[in-house]
């Protein structure tokens, strides 16, 4: 058996990838949760789900600091990548095409839980001013689980109404993008090209010469 040589850290190691605003949000949520509950074993899948639910209900103002962190990290990454020279044989990935969302597209419908969070988030923050974003998300999830059927049916109705609104607006939005069907009423007769008109004139002249 050949003895393997220990790996040596490369001086020209590729820069660490940039983090998104949401990634910073999840990271801080985990840090806050770990400080308050150091002995608790966190199930990442469940924790991640709660973070995603909380993120969707946050206002732009609440998300601002995470976007600022992401912008700062992007500048760091771009600066480091400028001086990075990939080793031979390594392909440099091209920039992915960014999917541009149409600002005129209808706003997606919210679930019953999100409508509940919109109403309860302010109450949770007022009752627990020291809570971090992770704690607020956890408390909202707990309150939703404890809510009775009467309360949940109220938000279910709001979600159904919003879903119908979204489907209606989406149908109208898609129809706007369709081209009108060609019918005799809306067909426009295109003028002939100069060459075609010249050919027609030549044919008429030949017919006149033949008649003579």
TrEMBL record:
It is found in: Chromosome; Nucleus. GO terms for cellular component: chromosome; nucleus. Keywords: Chromosome, DNA-binding, Nucleus, Repeat. PROSITE patterns: HMG_BOX_1 (PS00353), HMG_BOX_2 (PS50118). Residues 81-105, 172-212 are annotated as: Disordered. Belongs to the HMGB family. This is HMG box domain-containing protein.
